[in-house]
Design a protein that fits this description.
By secondary structure, the chain is an alpha/beta fold. It is 21% helix and 24% strand. Helix 2 packs parallel to helix 4. The longest helix is centred in the N-terminal third of the chain and has 13 residues.
Length: 288
């Protein structure tokens, strides 16, 4: 069985994109097509119909299957009644019926998790949450999968802070509980965005632990001290994984050698659902 290759894009923000970066990413994807393009939210800047259409046209032009989940920018900030009563009406019309899609091949299962919220108790409605009913539904879907598949969850909001801090104002609510459930059900990677900041972190120091894979903004002009970026993920036949960051240097996409990581395959691939047989994955970083 050959490796499965996934391009992890996030925070496209059509409506506020850099045309040169968009064109460069199109050329990169067409020249080296992945098996799947996973987009972890914020396809648009303001959930306008034309922004969704532009995002959809761009993704369809890349020539690979796509899996997309919404971000906070994909719910209208301008039309309160629509936001509260029909928050995903435009998403469903332009991007498809579901907000939590599933993609599988013989080796990998990628499952979407919608962490965006129409409203919250916080003044900042951009904050996300892993709701109880969405988490229960995702766990049921994980349990229904063949046990040998490498499990990857895609959501928008981060579940783990960039550094060693215990919390972060932009973490999704219920993040710790979600990560514990992911570990117990064999999830290996969690792909997300929102912060426009790329980093990798294991969710726990010991025991079964998914790797948090955060992406920078793929195509937008809303940069926060980092270049446009996306993650290139390769899942080998034995379940080992290699993730490398690709960054825009102003004229093309190059590999960021400092932003790469390898995960060994979990022991006993046939028992991937049993966390007692899955110790902390070993990691090696390539030299800078």
């Amino acid at each position: 069985m050959s490796a499965t290759r996934i391009a992890h894009l996030t925070d496209l923000h059509f409506g506020a994109t850099d045309p040169a970066v968009v064109a460069g990413l199109h050329a990169e994807m067409r020249a080296d097509r992945p098996d799947l393009i996973a987009v972890s939210g914020d396809l648009t800047m303001g959930a306008r119909a034309r922004e969704f259409r532009d995002a959809r046209a761009f993704l369809e032009s890349l020539g690979a299957p796509t899996l997309c989940v919404p971000g906070n920018h994909d719910i209208s900030p301008y039309r309160l009644a629509e936001r509260l009563l029909m928050p995903y009406a435009r998403w469903r019309r332009e991007m498809g019926a579901g907000t939590e899609p599933l993609w599988c091949n013989a080796q990998v299962a990628v499952i979407g998790l919608n962490t965006a919220r129409r409203a919250s108790m916080h003044l900042d409605w951009s904050r996300g949450r892993v709701s109880g009913h969405r988490l229960r539904r995702l766990i049921a879907r994980l349990d229904a999968l063949p046990r040998h598949l490498t499990r990857i969850v895609v959501g928008h909001h981060p579940l783990l802070a960039p550094g060693d801090e215990a919390s972060h104002p932009q973490l999704a609510g219920n993040a710790q509980h979600a990560l514990a459930e992911f570990a117990a059900h064999g999830v290996r990677l969690v792909l997300a965005g929102h912060l426009h900041h790329a980093y990798f972190r294991l969710a726990a120091a010991t025991g079964p632990s998914p790797l948090i894979v955060q992406g920078g903004s793929a195509t937008s002009t809303r940069l926060r001290g980092e270049p446009n970026a996306y993650n290139r993920i390769t899942i080998e036949a034995d379940g080992s994984a290699h993730i490398e960051g690709r960054v825009w240097d102003g004229s093309g996409w190059v590999t960021d050698k400092a932003h790469a990581i390898r995960l060994d395959a979990p022991p006993d691939r046939g028992m991937g659902l049993d966390p007692s047989l899955w110790p902390r994955p070993s990691m090696t970083r390539p030299p800078k």
